[in-house]
Design a protein that fits this description.
Distance between the termini: 53 Å
Largest sheet: none
Order of helices and strands: HHH
């Protein structure tokens, strides 16, 4: 592994901690949903950087696309559920 990829991976991992704080402390439920989306997005970026580091980018891109799709669908579904629940 190259040192720049390791450094970027560590920086991204540290950036994941910022929305993780909002996930735990968040004053509203919608803040927590947005924090989950941010963590998922940064995890996709981390997967791609790890793929470059190991030289297997084609495999990690497939994993990142699948994870991004699941993250998007989960965030939208949670938002719709909370919106309908708030109307009642």
């Amino acid at each position: 592994m190259d040192i720049p990829f390791v450094a970027v991976s560590i920086i991204i991992a540290l950036l994941i901690a910022v929305p993780f704080y909002r996930l735990i402390v968040g004053p509203t439920l919608f803040d927590r949903v947005i924090a989950c989306g941010l963590i998922g997005t940064k995890s996709v970026l981390l997967l791609i950087v790890i793929g470059f580091a190991y030289g297997r980018i084609e495999m990690f891109i497939d994993l990142a696309i699948a994870y991004a799709l699941l993250n998007f669908i989960g965030t939208v579904a949670t938002g719709k559920y909370l919106e309908k629940r708030a109307d009642k």
